[in-house]
Amino acid sequence: MTSHQGTQEPRVAVLVYNDCANDSRVLKESATLASAGHITRIVAVERREKGYMAGRGALSERLDLERVPEFAIERIVPALAPLWRNLIRQGQVPADATEPPRRPSPPAAGLKVSALRALRNVGERAYRTIALGTYWVNATRSALRFSPDVVHANDGNTLVPAMAVRALSRRRVGIVYDSHELWLHRNIRQDRLLAPLVERLSEALGVRQADGVITVSPSIARWLQETYSLAEAPSLVRNVPAEGPLPDTSTGVLRERAGLSAEDKVIAYGGRITSSRGIEETIAALPHLPDEVHFVLLGYGEPDALASVRAEAASHGVSERVHLVGAVAPDEVSRALADGDVAVVHVRPVCLSYRYALPNKLFESIRAGLPIAAADLPDMREVVERLGVGEVFHGTSAEDLAAALVSILEDPEPYRERARRAAPTLTWELEAARMLELYDRVLAGPAPVPGTEEA
Predict the structure, then answer these.
(1) pLDDT band at 99 (very low <50, low <70, confident <90, very high)
(2) Residue 91 is assigned to a structural domain of this protein
(3) What pTM value is reported for the model?
(4) What is the predicted pLDDT for the residue at 333?
């Protein structure tokens, strides 16, 4: 494949189905491609409720970000917007669902609640389907206007527009599939009907059309290669921090934001605040730890997720020892974590994608110089044990996690020292070299079929 219109600067369209405000992996990959001489455009989606509106703006000399319009009822049928919001509000029925009705008609009241929930469920599914389809159409149009040499599809929900761009382009366009998680086995609701079939078909077609595949952990790489009979293993590009001066305790923000003293012990958490990420388990372990041990969560989360953390802390009687301290910019996480005493890196293996996880919070914590208490998952265990940066707890009870934390906190310095030694070998620049090697092969085009070379 030759570069765009014979120039020396290939064009790469990076597709991602989020607003890309905090997607550290997509931002780092795109910046790396731009620095390597590729004219790069991220095609994300607007999220008006968060303040990220449709439009395009430059991020650096060869890199810009375009957020395409999201699906919004206000744009299509403005008169229906209040009705839709009212349906969502009524569908939640927080009080009626739990409190006994004041009037003696429980069957009718229960039927109304069930009907509202069913209607809301159907509406949400339809809305999400239409929203994704709208992104597919708008992302395809945006990428075609950009006229890329390569489309970089982040996760399975961008493979359809990637394949559409190739099919509708007048010249051959390369596809790189970047699987941030095991897409077909991620943590989603299990009562979906049509979506799983669409996802299986789109990933199967997309992987086979892709000129290169990238993923985040060895186990996911093996699964993809075995499932789709790939001749070449996917390139392993882990989501690790960028190189730079190593943080020290003076850069940390956890104690100041949580109002803790130097005598307090801090279990650090950095990342998105949601379920199945070890937050519940860590809170449950706190009653088995000394009173001076606190749990400080650095990251962003939806309001209901934050409320769930507070409720969980209250249920265990440790509300004063659990602190939600907000977020920092993606490239500041390691520095912000550095005044912690230990990091819990725990992913509950509720799906195969979580079992094979190798989360960036593991590498952020290592760079921060924190000892790690890690869940017993294959890829995570391999990193922690090989580098000697922490302890893997093998049980599932709160006592098991508490025992690992006590063991680390009794003598943390050896783990800290090994983390500091390991950090310079775990940098984005080293990981991204494999991505750039892959791009060189993709841009060079497919190898000629034997016997067809020019004499």
Answers:
(1) very low
(2) no
(3) 0.86
(4) 94
Q: What is the CATH number of the domain that holds 13?
A: 3.40.50.2000
Same domain, 295 and 398: yes
Q: Which residues pair with 151 in a beta bridge?
A: 13, 175
Distances (CA, A) of 232 to 159, 179, 213, 235, 419: 19, 15, 9, 9, 32
Residue type, 139: A
Residue 216: CB partners within 8 Å, gap ≥ 6? 25, 179, 180, 181, 236, 237, 238, 239, 358
Q: What is the dihedral of CA 251, 252, 256, 260, to 10 degrees?
A: -140
Give the residue with greater pLDDT, 447 vs 90: 447
Which residue(s) pair with 323 in the sheet?
296
Q: Are residues 307 and 363 in the same domain?
A: yes
Cα 369-370-374 angle, rounded to 5 deg: 135
* Contact criterion met (CB below 8 Å) for 361 and 345: yes
Quick: pLDDT tens for 270-326.
988 988 888 999 999 999 999 999 999 999 898 999 999 999 999 999 999 999 999
Residues 82/85/91/94 CA torsion (nearest 10 deg): -110
Q: How far is Cα 407 from Cα 390, in angstroms, rounded to an integer?
A: 10
Largest CA distance in the chain: 91
**What tens digit of pLDDT does each residue of 332-372 get?**
999 999 999 999 999 889 999 999 999 999 999 999 999 99
Whether residue 38 sits in one domain with residue 185: yes
The total number of structural domains that make up the chain: 2
Show the tokens assigned to 223.
């699964």
Amino acid at 83: L
Band of the pLDDT at 42, cuts 50, 70, 90?
very high
The boundaries of the domain holding residue 404 are 249-425
Class of residue 209 by CB neighbours under 10 A (exposed 0-12, middle 13-18, buried 19+):
middle
